[in-house]
Amino acid sequence: MKNNILQKLSYGVYIVGTMDDTRKVGCVLNSAMQITANPQTIAISVNHDNYTNQCIKQNGRFSLSVLHEKSKKELIGTFGYHSSKETDKFMEFDYEMIQDVPVICDSCGYVVCNVISTLETSTHTIFVGEVIESKTYHDYQPMTYQYYHEVLKGKTPKNAPTYVEEDIKKEITTNKWKCKVCGYIYEGDELPKDFKCPICGVGIEMFEKVE
Ligand code: FE
To answer: pTM, whole model, 2 decimals?
Structure first.
């Protein structure tokens, strides 16, 4: 189905955090919205394949940290392109434990929510959460998904609700190298030897030339 109009919807860039039995887990989200003002509730959409999904269901609580334009790009690489099953994603970043769930300090701020309802779709769970605590850390411009794409040159991972096949296809031209981990495209004559992916941090051995 041609659905270009859906690409005109606006999104942010967020990190959702929760716990499994003993460990901090989390992932990147682009879909979050406020649903009601009193009580304050929000809805988020999390892919079934993300380990964080089942952890939110078990825990019944999650945090949502709102990234800003100056937030470290590595947050997106770590939280967006690895699994919490294998990695402690919070280890490399400043975080706080609020109401027993982790929040990211390098953000505009956070809300912590108790899950009050869920809706299953074919690929994603929509969690509706009631806000039990919130805080503003910084007044920087919140990062929009458009900023992530156009300024940071980030790509849409397959698990995102907004993924479309063209997202990869349109990048295929000459003299480009693509990060095999996150899809970041480097453009130039040669890939510098000490180059590191600005999104996920891997070295040039993880890049392949786009023919
Ligand atoms: Fe990468």
So the answer is: 0.84
